[in-house]
Every structure is written in C-alpha cells, then in structure tokens.
Amino acid sequence: MGPVYKPEYYEFLYEKSSRNRILVTAKTLFASLGYDNTSTAVIARNAGTSESQLMKHFGGKAGLLETIFSEGWSRINTQLETCFESASDLSARFSCIPGIVFQNLDQDLELKTLVLLEAHRMREAARSNPDQSGYAAFIKLIDQAIEKAKADGEFQADVPSRPLRSAIVGMIEGGVREQVLAARANFPASYGSEEYQKLFSAFLGTVVSGMPERHIHAGQQ
After folding, report:
1. Domain with 136 in it: what CATH number?
2. What average pLDDT does the segment 82-89 reach?
3. Which listed site, 31, 40, 126, 161, has its alpha carbon 20 to 30 Å from 91?
C-alpha cells in the first residue's frame, strides 16, 4: 500500500522540525487509519524522517499519541484558565468549558476524531501519568472550579462535586462523539457545536440556580 499522507500536501510542514513533522503526520495517520493500523515506519516515512528520530523524541508510538493528546489539551487548558479568571460568575465560568473545548476541536478535526477513537488511551495516560497529561490537567481545572464555587457559596453545597464533574465531561465527550460519528458514519446528529453549547448552558444553569426541591422529588417518583 502506498503512503496515504504526504508532507508536500502541507507546505508549512517542511519548515517544521523533525519532531513537529512527526507529530503532524502521526495525528493525520492515527485519525485516518486508526492507531493500531499505523506503524512507526509509516509515520517516519511520511514525515520525511527516520524511525530513530521518532524513538528519540517520543520513545515509540504510545508516547507519540500521548504527546498529541497532551499538547492538544494543554492549548485548551491555557485558554480555559484565562476564561475562568475573566468570568464574572459561576455561570460564565462554566460556559467557558464547552465554548473553548468545541472551538478548539472544531479547528482541529483530527484531534477531535482521536478524542473519539482513542479516548480509552487518553484516559489511561491521564490515570497512569497525571502530571504529564493535558487531559488530566483539564479534569483538574474543572474540579478546582467546582470546589471554588462551593467555597464561595455560588451553588448548593450538597451538589456532589465528582458526579457534577463527570456530568460536565460526559456531556462534552458525548457531543464530540456524536459529531464525529455524524461526519464519518452518517450518524443522526446533524446539530452543530453552538446548539450543543446552548443545551450545556441550560443544564449548568439548572445546577447553578438550584433545581426546585419539588422537581427533584417528582423526578424520583
């Protein structure tokens, strides 16, 4: 099988270091062929470099995928921290999360695809090496925002922190999953990121304002 990706398709790639050429090439191949179906030899060949350079910079294919995820989430985290600092209240801070995540992933469709296809590897890297994982840092930012809001009395103290974080992350990953499946497999999810953000904001608005007790009991009956 001939190469499915050629660096000459992206003129800017030649201006990058061998490390960055490998990263860009690997992200494209992982997203199009799948992680398991992409060898280090194919990555190196299409990046115009050697396997020894790949091993030198990343230690292997697993390290390469971890770096792709870590650098992608680090960009998101930097923007998220800035948005949290400038937001006037809890609702505005929570609104930062889907807005920034979807904006970045919509601009990097290969990373968006990998968040779906290789999420289990992303989570495993966050679990096994949290200090180096951009995704682990993303989770930590949300945890910190929730705990700060509780300490400041911005929403009900009896709202459990970890389940709330799980709900926030789950909604984001669910939206990403359906959008990628809609693009790749004709899945019936033709809504855009802006529509999903409205639903996300409505959900978090309920949490922030506090759901009336009678509605909670009604839902449990």
Report:
1. 1.10.357.10
2. 89
3. 126
